[in-house]
What does this fold into?
Amino acid sequence: MTSRRNFLRLGALGAGMFLTRCGIAREPDEKKLKSEPALPQFNAQNAPIVISTWNHGVAANAAAWPILLGGGASLDAVEKGVMVTESDPESTSVGYGGLPDRDGHVTLDACIMNAASQCGAVAFLENIENPISVARKVMEETPHVLLVGEGAYAFARKQGFPHKDLLTEKSREHWQNWLKQSQYTPIINRENHDTIGMLALDSQGNLAGACTTSGMAYKLHGRVGDSPIIAAGLFVDNEVGAACATGVGEAVIRVAGSHLVVELMRQGKSPEVACRLAVERVLSKHPDASNLQVGFLALNK
It folds into this structure.
């Protein structure tokens, strides 16, 4: 394990740009990776740390940071951080304002995991603005890890979460325009894959992570991606590090992507190399990557 933490987000708008930007080869060369421009690094004594995916992670980080700076727990920080994005109607791929499935339903997925390997998740959840908080309740108030659909909604209501229509006029308009063409295969682009994943390390040395999304725009009703799946969309091991994923969930699930990144770090790989090797694993399972977008974020101890 290295004495410094660093992180890497790998992502792109299409496979060609992805391959070019990341320099992916069929057998990644770690020497070549080390020769590339250095990524941001953090001294081991510089906790706390919070990192997240995509541009909307800036506001989420800003909400999480005061909790960490005040000596708060990483679990509280990641929950409060991603709630900002869930409640932002301008974010069309997370929470309130998310683009619906092809039947017009906004269905949400989320998971959360703490330093003790406790975790909770919800999937195919409708009419609840902050699924990440419901996921935390699943972790803390039930013996289960994952609740879905009507059961998840009923649980959320019993826990005091209010009912809310999540389909904004903006997202409704996008959906109605999509219906005019009704392409069976959802369009793969950044706008409908901006899952927010957040990882944090608090001043007590404890890691936590959260992942939340409204999923692939115009998906088949009932589809669930990687975001609520522990080991796919998110994985935390307090002895090693944490990782989360974004992009096409089916591709991440096929390789248990976030768990793979953490296990590679357990073997001594840096977060950068671990993420790149995980991306290579994804590509090896998808020879035709023309409609593939996948990214990983990682933090080691």
Remarks:
- DSSP finds ten helices and eleven strands in the chain.
